[in-house]
Amino acid sequence: MPYLSPISPGLSWYEDTAGPRPEYPALDGDKQADVVIIGGGFTGLSAAAHLAKAGTNVVLIEAHRFGDGASGRNGGQLGTGQRAWAEELEGEYGFTRAKALFDLAEDAKAHLLEFSATNDIDIDYMPGQMSVAHKPRYVDDYKAHAEIMANRFNYPHITFMDARETAERLGSTHYYGGTRDTGTGHIHPLKLVIGTARVAAAAGAQLFEKTQSTGITSQGGKVRVTTERGTITAQKCLIAVNAYGGKLEPISASHIMPIGSFIGATVPLGADSKVIPGGESVDDSRFVVRYFRKSRDGRLLFGGREIYAVNDPKDIHIHIRKQIAEIYPALKDVEITHGWGGYVGITVPRKPFVREVMPNVISVGGYSGHGVMLSNFFGKLYAETVAGNRDRLKLIEDLKIPPFPGGRRFRAPLLFLALNWFALRDRI
């Protein structure tokens, strides 16, 4: 029987193609550590690997299996920069800080590729990403963005595409123009999860699956994380649960909201397919963004149906096929072999959330759909912080991230209404 995540719906193509997925034991008994990490996704596993390599005694617990949340089930696109365009950050924070945030993201991209290569993790990296406009009025913004990135932020890898070039590179006339970025690419995310866990364990990190935290306290210079079968006492704690925090810690919960995003994988389209002949990944200009790419074996992996509540969706295949057909009418009857979802954490301004939520306890998340490269790097930045250098993590800590309005009772319904309004705007 294929493995089905108990916290994320559907059967993942990544699960079927990742190769051996080692299981780690559950915690049984009390532990002492320098650092305790809650969450076995990209952020937590990366932090564990870097901490352990530096000689830190680290214990990591995951409520289910590593990668069961967004880290092992996402669209696999790296992107460039932060979630917001660099010129948007410049308007909010000024050029110096916007450039620093952009450079940090470029460091994140380089780190992910270097970490994978150095540790022999085959992540199925494929180069190239296109960002495309679903309305004519957005085309000029994409053209200006390419020029700004080259001339102002010293990033020459983005070029503008007119409607004709966009149609040729996509194999579809659905979009009006966009940009092509040759300085980034896309990966198989679950392979990265499995590989990072292997590196962390080999370095001496104590890794535990199927071990849910039941509480966190910080008092007298000690952090205690309780579980059903043991307590971990440490000097410091990293909360790296992102969208899956529930009621674990109230400050994180008020700033990070889970939304569901769902993906379908088709049968291989064949060598003669005109769909994305260059192999790039694609994202579009909708607020409820559609994102798609071809896998190494030629399947179309298509994501785009977002749900702003935590109930499992029904009939993932039907909804995904409908969206595929809008862009590629010839694929309206294509067989979809896998349909799955996961919950990503967003913040109000769609920027990452990093906060010391209690003494010696730092929470990291809210990547807002831009977490593949950022989350792995933020694990490294947390390890730097433990070693005494908080400068780079502080760039993210200082971002303005307000809580969601409405409090615990009303914030989910308010978000549902607001984001569905944005989805309606995408269509008109």
Automatic annotation (TrEMBL):
Annotated source species: Aminobacter niigataensis
GO molecular function: oxidoreductase activity
Principal EC category: oxidoreductase
Record lineage: Bacteria, Pseudomonadati, Pseudomonadota, Alphaproteobacteria, Hyphomicrobiales
Stored InterPro entries: FAD-dep_OxRdtase, FAD/NAD-bd_sf
Protein's name according to its UniProt entry: Gamma-glutamylputrescine oxidase
Pfam families attached to this UniProt entry: DAO
Keyword Cytoplasm: no
EC number(s) per entry: 1.4.3.-
